[in-house]
Write a structure and sequence with these properties.
- It is built from 9 helices and no strands.
- The protein is 70% helix and 0% strand.
- With 236 residues, it is an all-alpha fold.
- Keywords: Membrane, Transmembrane, Transmembrane helix.
- This is Succinate dehydrogenase / fumarate reductase cytochrome b subunit.
Length: 236
């Protein structure tokens, strides 16, 4: 390149976009795995509510005495919080870069599909859900049900879930959040596999099927809990 044009080179962006996409993909897959496992644990509510309380207590004792009580739980919380921050940050930076590189006055490209267009709004709904969910069933603040009971030391996880979702407005919000999560997973799992280089020419359809299965399992499993809690806790 001639010396006269050497200073016109676009500065290299840090971190590179491929790194951001990898962070976005990996953090998303970690959180998707957590949500799937979390749903499987919540299904105890449908089978035996008392076993759900025992499960909540067991989570505090995982790896004791290797770790202090609740040590493994706090490690998981820190990991998930880090993934959430990394996921949101990388998504916003990539979104800003895409907007900045768009030619001024050029016609905006349409999203490749409705699921791609829903990634940002569904992500914002999920951020709101996480805040409400923690306030509702973990901290017991602001939006909790009147029947919320913290461990004393007996756990009341099942009763708290039923009391919360017996409220029609909260049940509707959880249902909306589940739909947003399903839409996010349907598009996100295949995209994450692609960004991590796990997709060959013929395997993308397989990853799309994985996304459909995971999204359907979580939607149906957690949706059943919402419906059962609403019906169980409804006044006669």
């Amino acid at each position: 390149m001639p010396r006269a044009f050497a200073g016109l080179q676009a500065p290299e962006r840090r971190p590179p976009s491929w790194v951001l996409r990898s962070i976005l993909a990996l953090s998303g897959l970690v959180m998707a795995a957590f949500v799937l496992v979390h749903m499987l644990g919540n299904l105890k509510l449908l089978i035996d509510p008392e076993s759900m309380d025992a499960y909540a207590a067991w989570l505090r004792d995982v790896l004791v005495p290797l770790l202090p009580r609740e040590g493994a739980l706090w490690i998981a919380r820190i990991l998930l919080a880090s993934c959430l921050i990394a996921h949101a940050w990388s998504a916003l930076v990539l979104k800003a870069r895409a907007a900045a590189t768009r030619t001024r006055g050029a016609r905006r490209k349409r999203p490749t599909g409705i699921l791609a267009a829903l990634m940002l709004p569904s992500g914002l709904i999920l951020l709101a859900f996480i805040a409400v969910h923690l306030l509702d069933l973990t901290l017991g603040r602001i939006v909790q049900s009147e029947a919320f009971a913290p461990p004393d030391p007996q756990f009341h996880a099942a009763a708290n879930v039923i009391a919360s979702l017996a409220r029609p407005a909260m049940a509707a919000f959880y249902a909306l959040s589940l739909l947003a999560l399903a839409a996010h997973l349907l598009h996100g799992i295949g995209l994450a596999a692609k960004d991590l280089g796990a997709v060959s020419r013929g395997s993308f359809a397989l990853w799309r099927i994985v996304g459909v299965l995971v999204a359907a399992m979580i939607l149906l499993g957690d949706g059943a809990i919402v419906i059962a809690s609403l019906m169980t806790g409804a006044p006669a």
